[in-house]
Amino acid sequence: MKRLTILGGGESGVGTAILGKKKGYNVFVSDKGKIQKKYKEVLLHHGIDFEEEKHTESLILNADLVMKSPGIPEKVALVQKLIEKQIPVISEIEFASQYTDATIIGITGSNGKTTTTLLTHHLLKEAGVDVGVAGNIGDSFAQHVAENNVDNYVLEISSFQLDGVNNFKPHIAIITNITADHLDRYNYDFNKYVSSKFKITMNQDGGDFLIYDADDEVIEEGLRAHLPYAKLVPFSIERELEYGAFLKEDKIITRLNTEEFSMSISKLTLQGKHNVKNTMAATLASQLLNVRSQSIKESLVNFEGAEHRLENVQKVNGVQFINDSKATNVNATFYALECMEQPTVWIVGGVDKGNDYSDLLPLVREKVKAIVCLGEDNEKLKAVFSNVVDMMVETAGAEEAVKVAYKLSQKGDAVLLSPACASFDLFDSYEDRGRQFKNAVRSL
């Protein structure tokens, strides 16, 4: 019996353990930290061996195959030892994909991947397609494959998950955009990060499709460097295209085969330039799977959007509070500020991943009246923005940040939580940060 060792007892680890056991592996889960109660119960229920708060090398280095949680960097000593021993170290996406014949739509990118994933899933589901959604969002892909049998999967896939793929082959791949993010994991080498994103298409062939942002110079360069075999399906908001999707007179137009699809952007529930692009990508993917135009149009109008992504929380005495906690990098925050139409009090800060905030200066000058810092170390933010806004206040928690922002705002203003940073200094996750923000707003 082959031994499958899993590093990390979170969503992807436990899902892989369930699938591994079902496929006849001798499974062992090892987590350096504490395993959450809900995951521990699942492991016990399935009779899977595990350890927590330690990695026992003798129990790990005897594996035939190792699935590493995406949160564990490759440079840690234990992973290096596995590589030296030539024990394959793969990601959950790689492991699970070999046990399903479903058509896979894989979506990656620095920003927009969650919205594009949820929107693509929505368009397919509303059209009656048998489809599941998993990956970097919601449920583990491996657990889905173990417990359900659907014909199609829409997967949100991070660069960390792509780092561990060898044979993964989506039928449709989408790269929403590529901007500097997570550079701390790639030795501050942007090209390594770009190569990681392009692994989504490396096994595709001429019968597969790669949907991508043709306005993104980094992607265009990546296409020249990696020369994908898949059929290229571009989208653009800057120029008309013979094939793909583009914007003309405030209408999204797609040209894939003979039929031309067209829809006014004013009807979309998702607003902002970046969401026009996300909509184009999801629409193209749905059309490639033969969803009817009328169905796509109806579904684009009734889509709810992603939690923690430019989510209107509520108005308090004429001040609109907006939760964009999912903005964990500068580019995501750039999109958020670009969408703001009223004077804005901006709540920003957290764990900086090597951010360059200078790109935000024009938008901050134009739209932001005050800044509320929400992080343990705000020196970099203060250095960049203290001369640009009249008021800058440091706070140490969501409740305090919301109260201060409310004081600094007046009727007709917006308070925007768009941190541009990871959340791990004060919160468990960006979801935790977003929920605490929403609770604080509701108790004003």
UniProtKB/TrEMBL annotation:
Q: Supply the source organism for this entry.
A: Pseudotenacibaculum haliotis
What are its E.C. numbers? Answer: 6.3.2.9
* UniProt similarity note: Belongs to the MurCDEF family.
> Reaction catalysed by this chain?
UDP-N-acetyl-alpha-D-muramoyl-L-alanine + D-glutamate + ATP = UDP-N-acetyl-alpha-D-muramoyl-L-alanyl-D-glutamate + ADP + phosphate + H(+)
What Pfam family does this protein match (any one)? MurD_N
Name-wise, this protein is: UDP-N-acetylmuramoylalanine--D-glutamate ligase
Using the record's annotation, list all stretches that form the Mur ligase central domain.
107-285
Positions contributing to ATP binding? 109-115
Among InterPro entries, the record links this protein to:
Mur-like_cat_sf (IPR036565), Mur_ligase_C (IPR004101), Mur_ligase_C_dom_sf (IPR036615), Mur_ligase_cen (IPR013221), MurD (IPR005762)
Q: Where in the cell is it found?
A: Cytoplasm
Question: Could you read off the lineage of the organism from its UniProt record?
Answer: Bacteria, Pseudomonadati, Bacteroidota, Flavobacteriia, Flavobacteriales
Residues forming the Mur ligase C-terminal domain are: 308-421
Listed Gene3D superfamilies: Mur ligase, C-terminal domain (3.90.190.20), Mur-like, catalytic domain (3.40.1190.10), NAD(P)-binding Rossmann-like Domain (3.40.50.720)
Annotated function: Cell wall formation. Catalyzes the addition of glutamate to the nucleotide precursor UDP-N-acetylmuramoyl-L-alanine (UMA).
One annotated GO molecular function: UDP-N-acetylmuramoylalanine-D-glutamate ligase activity
In what pathway does it function? Answer: Cell wall biogenesis; peptidoglycan biosynthesis
